[in-house]
Amino acid sequence: MADGTAKLALGDKSTDYPIMSGTVGPQVIDIRKLYGDTDMFTYDPGFTSTASCESGLTYIDGDAGILLHRGYPIDQLAEQSSFMEVAYLLLNGELPSKSEFETFNTHITRHTMVHEQLSTFFRGFRRDAHPMAIMCGVVGALSSFYHDSTDINDPKQREIASHRLIAKMPTIAAMAYKYSVGQPFVYPKNSLSYTENFLNMTYSVPAEEYEIDPIIASAMDKIFILHADHEQNASTSTVRLAGSSGANPFACIAAGIACLWGPAHGGANEAALNMLREIGTPDRIPEFIARAKNKDDPFRLMGFGHRVYKNFDPRAKVLSKAATEVLDKLGINDPVLDTARELEQLALKDQYFIDKKLYPNVDFYSGVILSAIGFPTTMFTVLFALARTVGWVAQWNEMITDPAQKIGRPRQLYTGPTQRDYVPLGER
Ligand code: CMC
């Protein structure tokens, strides 16, 4: 909706651009006609000031530390809701009624199995492959198995593909884990909840009964909720960009997984725990803080800082509390938690971190919990991908149905050589 205009003056010529308002958050200047009105592009590496789309899913106020899904605060969802309910909310815009929720659960549950032939894919990977490498490959390969849900212009096929992706991610993630430890794959058990089923496929073995610990299941579900969606972050933007060309949903989500893997994004949870383990004991923290502040050292405190949150990350608050609860309840005394707490305290008092508004992010405490549950660090980002699939799929659907959507095609500021003539090899 246009809400006033912004004037751009270039020399003696000025042009008006519409200002658009959302329901909350900064207004945007609609510059779609800039190139045409002028012969200029805008320059915004990393899209720090650019809204790439209109979205009604997730709202973040980074200064106030607010994260809302369809209007609901993340802490309320984490404390009171379930991951499946949040998935429904993100996909459909409203919390489900009891019967809507049951129907949704049935749909997701029906799709938990993967094509039997898909398991042969795993055997092609080296046993020590990083599970994120396996995820990129196997999720991309889904498009070769489910041809009946790749027509992005058919709403029913989009819905089936969305349900398939959400339902099959835990199965594929658990298979990636089983493959890495050399244990047989475990089939989904549809009598279990989404999260319990994932834990069962991950930790049960045919030789003995596996009892799902409700503390672990509840912590895991909370972690999934906290990672479900996060506005136009790098991997979500990747999914949207891939989808803008009309690529099928399985390929788009595989692209999102690839982007998430990076240590500045989803890979930070693995990097954060590795860092805490490397620090080892609280007395070594000042050495690492000094390194993080040293401009000549590329080292950064992993799990600290965020492009959008400049006050605190509300997800980190929930996880900080959950980390203590889970370790207490499981009776685990992990020195890594002490190191994390001490590092947080020291960094928050340090002028460098205060000036740059660097606070613990979601990845700082999630690793402590996941490690207590028994996951190897290499699985951390896989779990992030599993949960974020809900957000990716919801954002992808929103994009496909947005009439303003075009293929994503940024421009550039070219600084290479101007036109020159080719010189044959013998003359160079
Ligand atoms: N440790 C030390 N210094 C830092 C850190 C850190 N973790 N993060 C940012 N800085 C400094 C950075 O050196 C820069 O200093 P200067 O202005 O002097 O050059 C300044 O703070 C701003 O950093 P930036 O890289 O320009 O900020 P950004 O918004 O582009 O990056 C970030 C955000 C999350 C990539 C970055 O804070 C970072 O690399 N953090 C560590 C990795 C991490 O924890 N990532 C998880 C993000 S939350 C989960 C997710 O969304 O995936």
TrEMBL record:
Gene3D superfamilies per UniProt: 2.20.28.60, Citrate Synthase, domain 1, Cytochrome P450-Terp, domain 2
PROSITE patterns in the record: CITRATE_SYNTHASE (PS00480)
Transmembrane residue ranges: 364-387
InterPro entries found in the cross-reference section: Citrate_synth-like_lrg_a-sub (IPR016142), Citrate_synth-like_sm_a-sub (IPR016143), Citrate_synthase (IPR002020), Citrate_synthase_AS (IPR019810), Citrate_synthase_bac-typ (IPR024176), Citrate_synthase_sf (IPR036969), Citrate_synthase_typ-I (IPR010953)
Domain of life of the organism encoding this protein: Bacteria
UniProt entry keywords in alphabetical sequence: Acyltransferase, Membrane, Transferase, Transmembrane, Transmembrane helix, Tricarboxylic acid cycle
Any GO BP: tricarboxylic acid cycle
Protein name listed in UniProt: Citrate synthase
GO cellular component, as recorded: cytoplasm
Biological or metabolic pathway of the protein: Carbohydrate metabolism; tricarboxylic acid cycle; isocitrate from oxaloacetate: step 1/2
GO molecular function: citrate synthase activity
Catalytic activity reported: oxaloacetate + acetyl-CoA + H2O = citrate + CoA + H(+)
Catalytic residue positions: H306, D363
Family: Belongs to the citrate synthase family.
Organism for this UniProt entry: Sphingomonas chungangi
